[in-house]
């Protein structure tokens, strides 16, 4: 089983609908992230959470909201989906360690969302 | 705002050739990451560079970090087709540990 699991893997939804993307992790990491990937734009940070009570906006948070239900779960919601939110969405986790030790991020398999 | 710039964005190279991908970032950061992404797949961590002068190698790939110049390089030696993928560099923001990504370098290795 994957350490970082995203559901659904693919989703087509209509404009104006509310949709939730879910992410769960078994790595025991405190830090979780949602990124959006568009062709030619790399990955852009939507929201991040450093623990259950800490939620922070990223560079493109407008139109999105998140919920950190538990250390292992971080969900992303589109309250009213629009076509330009069509993208590949990635959840990631990382671990805060002492300076000098690895803090790489681990990514889920991605959710391909299409808004029609 | 931390900006991360990669170049080139597209690279087509012949098997057996060498090439370097560059990653510049705009503000002080103490660590840099390289990731690989195959089409339709997730991101796979390649290298974590944690200090000035750090150099790491894995097979035909070698990454280095110059924090004074705010520059990292990913050098490809004697490219093979299996290296065809998109490569991303990423840098921690100063306010925390959220990663800021470059736009990626799409590499195609041809016979």
Protein topology:
The complex is a heterodimer of chains A (116) and B (111).
Chain A: E1 4-7, E2 10-13, E3 19-25, E4 31-38, E5 42-51, E6 54-57, E7 64-70, E8 73-78, E9 87-94, E10 106-107, E11 111-115
Parallel strand pairs in A: 2-11
Antiparallel strand pairs in A: 1-3, 3-8, 4-5, 4-9, 5-6, 7-8, 9-10, 9-11
Chain B: E1 4-7, E2 10-14, E3 19-25, E4 32-37, E5 43-49, E6 55-58, E7 61-66, E8 71-76, E9 85-92, E10 99-101, E11 105-110
Parallel strand pairs in B: 2-11
Antiparallel strand pairs in B: 1-3, 3-8, 4-5, 4-9, 6-7, 7-8, 9-10, 9-11
Report on the architecture of this protein.
The complex is a heterodimer of chains A (116) and B (111). By secondary structure, chain A is mostly beta strands. Helices cover 0% and strands 56% of the residues of chain A. Chain A is built from no helices and 11 strands. In chain A, strands 2, 4, 5, 6, 9, 10 and 11 form a 7-stranded mixed sheet that branches. In chain A, strands 1-3-8-7 form a 4-stranded antiparallel sheet, with no helix packed on it. The radius of gyration of chain A is 14 Å and the shape is globular. Chain B is mainly beta and 111 residues long. Chain B has no helices and 11 strands. Chain B has strands spanning 4-7, 10-14, 19-25, 32-37, 43-49, 55-58, 61-66, 71-76, 85-92, 99-101, 105-110. In chain B, the strands form 2 sheets. In chain B, strands 2, 4, 5, 9, 10 and 11 form a 6-stranded mixed sheet that branches. Chain B has a 5-stranded antiparallel sheet with strand order 1-3-8-7-6, with no helix packed on it. The relative contact order of chain B is 0.33. Chain A binds chain B through residues 31, 33, 35, 40-45, 48, 50, 56, 58-59, 90, 92, 94, 96, 99-110, and chain B through 1, 4, 9, 30-31, 33, 41-43, 45, 48, 50-51, 88, 90, 92, 96-104.
């Amino acid at each position: 089983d994957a350490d970082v699991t995203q559901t659904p893997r693919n989703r087509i939804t209509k404009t104006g609908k509310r949709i939730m993307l879910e992410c769960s992790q078994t790595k025991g990491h405190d830090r979780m992230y949602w990124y959006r990937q568009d062709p030619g734009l790399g990955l852009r940070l939507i929201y991040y959470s450093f623990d259950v009570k800490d939620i922070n906006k990223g560079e493109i948070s407008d139109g999105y909201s998140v919920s950190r239900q538990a250390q292992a779960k971080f969900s992303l919601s589109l309250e009213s989906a629009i076509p330009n939110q069509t993208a590949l969405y990635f959840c990631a986790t990382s671990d805060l360690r002492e300076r000098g030790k690895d803090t790489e991020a681990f990514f889920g398999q991605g959710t391909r969302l299409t808004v029609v | 705002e931390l900006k991360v710039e990669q170049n080139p964005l597209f690279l087509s190279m012949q098997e057996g050739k060498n090439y370097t991908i560059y990653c510049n970032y705009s503000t002080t950061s103490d660590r840099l990451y390289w990731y690989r992404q195959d089409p339709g797949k997730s991101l796979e961590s390649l290298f974590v560079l944690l200090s000035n002068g750090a150099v790491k190698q894995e097979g035909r790939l070698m990454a280095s970090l110059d924090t004074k110049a705010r520059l990292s390089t990913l050098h490809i030696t004697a490219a093979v087709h299996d290296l065809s993928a998109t490569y991303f560099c990423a840098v921690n923001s100063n306010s925390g540990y959220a990663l800021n990504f470059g736009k990626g370098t799409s590499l195609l290795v041809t016979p």
